[in-house]
Amino acid sequence: MSGNREDGERDGASGTLLEVACDESGSDGENLTGGNTDVFAHGSVSLSVASAAAAVREIRDRIRSPAEEYKANHLLREKHRAVLEWLLAPEGPIHGRARVHLMEKSYFVVERTVGLLLDGTSEAPDLFRAGRGTFGDDGWRAFLEAANRLLRVRDNGDPVAAFYGTVDALRRAYPGTQAAEFLGRLAATRARAEAYRAGFLAGPPLIPVLNPLLPAIVRTAALWSGDGRPVRLVHDRQNMLTPDRIAWIEEAARRAGVALAGLRLVVARDDARVQVADFLAGIARKIASDELNRRGDPALTALLRPYVDPDSVWGDARSRARLAAPVTG
Question: pTM for the whole thing?
């Protein structure tokens, strides 16, 4: 096992240092509008290796699947509903010891677009609300897809022309609306967008603007170090987490005043804590996506609510209220 903590150690603490295990669910890289999922979730748990291993054993004993490695989808099957409720319940093994940071991907695209082109994210909630309410499903989808193309690193066409063409078409179709006013401001930023794309000629950036994993890790560190105690993160191995990007995460945390003592990578199947974080991330992504799409299960949403980061990146007001995940800006 990668974690060699003493079995008697409680809540992942090691002296004054808190060790927190993490994993994600819903990663589609920079393809946030055309991927397989509409929600990204980053789960984290503060458990000892012994406590996490006991939870995994209990899940296996209750589900009794022959699968070598269990994933969240095992718990999300209706026939295992009782196991899922047990895991999330106030009396369960992770209550008070786990958190999940959620990202509504379409809102993340809007937030990043506004941040890049309009020098800040404070207007992102208003654009998200006005655009979605004005342009209709097809028009809003066209805007999101064009914005995603503009910001993502790899695109074989002309994403600048596609984005500003979409902006102009929507402005003409919905004149006099608040949404069109926002688009008017975006229409004046073409030079900035061209400079952004030109920067890729020297090679891909170290930190892709649209990848949600890196800011989610920084936020997770902030969640667990809020009392001032240093936190060390243990994360499932990811191709995105290169040494240079880990150094960026640690520096970004330092600049934000987050007491991140380090980040190390492990193989999930070798660390029961990461397996539990993986369960939580996958479960949270599914429950949150169901709420976003108006097919939520009230009982499961209520069970998830205590785990949700209040600063999750979420734009939809109705589901946000149910998940208790306010919009960040």
Answer: 0.92
